[in-house]
Amino acid sequence: MPFFRYEQVETQTSQNPGTSQAESPSTSNVHQTSSVPELPGFYYDPEKNRYFRLLPGHNNCNPLTKESIQRKEMECQRLRLLEEEKKCMKKTSRSGLNSSIILLKRQLGLFSSINYYRLIHELKVNCMQRRKLEIKSPDSSVSGTNNFKLIAADTVYERILTVNDVEHGGCKYGIVNLSGLGKDSLTVEMYDNLYFTNRKVNSVCWASLSHPDSHLCLMGAAESLGYASLLPASLFSNSNAGDQPGMLCSFKISTAWSCAWCLNPQADNCFSTGLSRRVLVTNAVTGHRQTFGTSSDVLAQQFAIQTPVLYNGCRSGEVFSIDVRLRSHKGHGWKATRLSHHSAVTSVNLLKDENYLMVADMEGQIKLWDLRKQKCVKEYEGHHNEHAILPLHVNEEEGLLTAVGQDCYTRIWNLQDARLLRTIPSPYPSSTDAIPSVAFSSQLGGARGVPGLLMAVKQDLYYFSYKIDDPYCLHMMGHAASLRT
């Protein structure tokens, strides 16, 4: 299993003692009160060092409940983390992780190249700082008027598809061009299409039909039934309505939860739709459909590239694969791989060698499965989820895993050793309508793009620069670049 063969790295030193910044904010207060006995009907205030009586939750006159106390504690924690980030007081996940010591140990031959680059990426993650982007649009009514629900980047991270909630219900769709994002520019262009609005969107993906990322798959709910739509991406960049191409296909179905596009040539032009108790695979050109019956709703999907195999995650916690070349769909013999989680699966991500599958569920568990042994080999702790369908973002080039929790914190893990590297607070108070949606890439904006994390929350877009400004860190990065050449 070469992907995980790394020597243990020791960077302990007295220069950076204290609690790791990667500690989950939702559990940070537990350590302060763990030694205090819990009394029924009372709560303990660690600041005032005394107990207070809890009032019934239905009491509207200054109610004091566990829920309100937890919300207050979480908000105080968020504001404290934001203040630390503003003052550059962030702590690394490893005590003593700094550029000068890492560079010295590398020069002495104490670190291999793999571990050296891995620690560089940890430093870069901890040095990311938030900057707000300016959104420009040919239509002044487009930018900054509706909350972002989700964003989805294309395969080369030149554009992101945005889904925004509208005030009177439903959603509207747009495309943000990231080519303007650079070292000296924090401006992006957003294009909207007014012909496809007011439909609730549950899932989106990019489709490569006539050329890479030429179309968009949209799945969701209409007035009565659900819908699946495949439309050209050019609809969002052509200002002349008369020249716009029409929708390639659109059909009504039961409520759609997920979708995925197949890039394997043996299932060319096919996309899948995860529905209630079934999977629908459709050829976008011929219209031919295959139906696979399941025992639960299919909430997450992804196609393999090397083989025409579709991986599915269900509300029941089951994860299974389908070879779409099969003609017979009777029984459950067509389920090639079967894994199990204890709660509803919200995301499936196949790693590039296609021997490992990353799976997240509604208990906040994130597991890496070895598909050859059908065994869990890694667990990534700290993620928070109770009932939301939240995606994972795997970046194997940088060795990072990124996920946004239902508590609105963005967490980044080391992909190899499952260490939680950083917990990023949201710029807005935690709420169900303010869960950030993110995209991470070493090339935001295409081949000549900039590395970083893109975050959409409420009506704003933020950019976290994935670079190091500290002189020591810059020297180390230059040294690393010289080693590569």
Automatic annotation (TrEMBL):
<feature type="region of interest" description="Disordered">
    <location>
        <begin position="1"/>
        <end position="39"/>
    </location>
</feature>
<dbReference type="Pfam" id="PF23761">
    <property type="entry name" value="Beta-prop_DCAF4"/>
</dbReference>
<dbReference type="InterPro" id="IPR052254">
    <property type="entry name" value="CUL4-DDB1_E3_ligase_receptor"/>
</dbReference>
<dbReference type="InterPro" id="IPR015943">
    <property type="entry name" value="WD40/YVTN_repeat-like_dom_sf"/>
</dbReference>
<dbReference type="InterPro" id="IPR036322">
    <property type="entry name" value="WD40_repeat_dom_sf"/>
</dbReference>
<feature type="compositionally biased region" description="Polar residues">
    <location>
        <begin position="9"/>
        <end position="36"/>
    </location>
</feature>
<keyword id="KW-0853">WD repeat</keyword>
<protein>
    <recommendedName>
        <fullName>DDB1- and CUL4-associated factor 4</fullName>
    </recommendedName>
</protein>
<dbReference type="GO" id="GO:0080008">
    <property type="term" value="C:Cul4-RING E3 ubiquitin ligase complex"/>
</dbReference>
<keyword id="KW-0677">Repeat</keyword>
<dbReference type="InterPro" id="IPR001680">
    <property type="entry name" value="WD40_rpt"/>
</dbReference>
<feature type="repeat" description="WD">
    <location>
        <begin position="338"/>
        <end position="379"/>
    </location>
</feature>
